[in-house]
Amino acid sequence: MDTPTAPIFIIGTERSGSNLLRLILNAHSGIAVPHPPHILKFFSPLAASYGELTNDAALRQLVTDVLGLLRVHIYPWEIAITPERITPGQAAIEGETRPKSLVGIFLALYDEYLRQSGKRRWGCKSTFVIDHVADVLVACPDARFILLVRDPRDVAVSSRRSIFSPFHPYFTALLWRRQQLTGARWLDSAASAKFHLMRYEDLIEHPEETVRSMCRFLGEDYQPQMLEFYRTPSARKSQELSASWRNVGSPIQAKNRNTFRRGLSADEIKLVEAVTGDLMTRFGYSLEFPAAGPEWPALQPSHLKVIWFTVLDWAWRLAVEWQALRHDSNYHLHWQRRLFLWRLQLRRRVRRIPCVLRHGRTPC
After folding, report:
1. 318 Cβ contact list (under 8 Å, min separation 6)
2. What are the sequence ranges of the domains in the chain?
3. Residue 139 · residue 7 · CB < 8 Å
4. Is residue 308 helix, strand or coil?
5. Is the dihedral of CA 183, 19, 263, 41 positive or negative?
6. Secondary-structure class of domain 8-359 per CATH
7. CA-CA distance, 95 to 86, in Å (whole number)?
């Protein structure tokens, strides 16, 4: 059998154990999984403003900005990457040239990380790739995807304490529903053989069995050191950078489930179940309130309840930002990244001005 080299993507919803799974995979002797700069998430809304990427100047500008994002990454990569190494048409891995597109630049960046890592296969933990699976498969048909699912009620508890996610359970539930519905559709699609479903609860309760199953899907040999991920330099670095990643410096915690029973009120549990209940049942999660109605997903942004949820979300955000300022050694990078992205968004608006002047609207 050929040695597998197809890229691996962890997709799903943040706060579902993706950092844990990244470190488990990265502990394999043949697989390199860096912490993701979320290129597709941040640049997909901006990509059209660069113009046709068949134009070398436009392509070079996008490559320059992608590397700019990497420089303010909240988990700094300890390697140097030059524009020439990730410019599609110049960069290639094993004879394959990446397409001149945002996805091509994204893939070329990981190809270069792999080259410098000395391993033979790379993985990406950016769960937001769940919104870009079709584009990735066009550019990389042999890619493999691990759909990571966690009880959305526990995701809501974890999100409330994390600087990376929505804070109010309602918004967490909406995000979970949208992303996991996309994942479920891929599981049911003609490309389902490229997807592997993993429940976070199975990973923490039966780690060796679950990781062995994943390795079979990936065509890899199981290696015992994968479950000793917490001893690796990458785990120690994660633990030191942010309180949101503190648990990865310890062995798997089998009891880290059903946290919603002490972390959410009864009304909040009903709220999450009303939004996500049908998908929870599909993925094997039992409901505390099976009779909860489906009224919540239909609420409009102007609804008074949603306005109140938004106020609470911002209040929790301020509290978490304050804690991150005090305890996270990479907090300054969060703001550097925000400022960098705001500058790109401003430049995009400026580029649209000629279109508005000519057409009275923004056609792009």
Report:
1. none
2. 8-359
3. no
4. helix
5. negative
6. alpha beta
7. 14
